[in-house]
């Protein structure tokens, strides 16, 4: 029996914590050898969990630091383990095939089109950009709920495409096509080139 001096979480939930399937890895942007990230990674590896969450990234850090941390964590975890990036799908930005929409912008106040004409989710088939702009500008929960629903649907569809591209051994081609569509003729940021070059997918390589 656990004593009264046991941590509150253990006294409240007397279970075997080794059963947890995931555990979040932090350490900020410290990627130097022996730094906080590496120490935390090693601590989680020692626990031999089925998978690991790459946490501690809020999205506000510079993009080079962001992808460098993700690369370090993904490389260090044991083969066969499942690393995933712990993040949130916010509702202030809408994900569509051609990039991002800031739906609160006045540009969408009279836009009768769907959020994403290529998306089959019920939000895109039932509501216009103008309506979603209106409800997002007002206080209430319906706007964020609808945007979040679409964003989750978008990500699920994207991951299904990624999975199929991997199975078809065509992932580099998929990435290049995705980036071309996402940026729509605008220059791809240098940090994107750097990150993809790091994993062996140069965007300027001919198919």
Spans of at least 5 consecutive residues whose pLDDT stays below 50 are: 1-15
For the largest beta-sheet, the strand count, sense and barrel status come to: 3 strands, parallel
Helix-strand makeup class: mainly alpha
- Following the backbone from N to C, one meets helices and strands in this order, namely HEHEHEEEHHHHH
Tally of separate domains: 2
Number of helices: 8
Which range does the strand content fall in? 5-15%
Distance between the termini: 63 Å
Q: Which percent range fits the helix content? A: 40-55%
Query: What does the overall shape look like?
Result: globular
Order of strands in the sheet with most strands: 1-2-3
| Mean pLDDT rating | 81
Task: Give Rg in angstroms.
Answer: 21 Å
> Got a strand count?
5
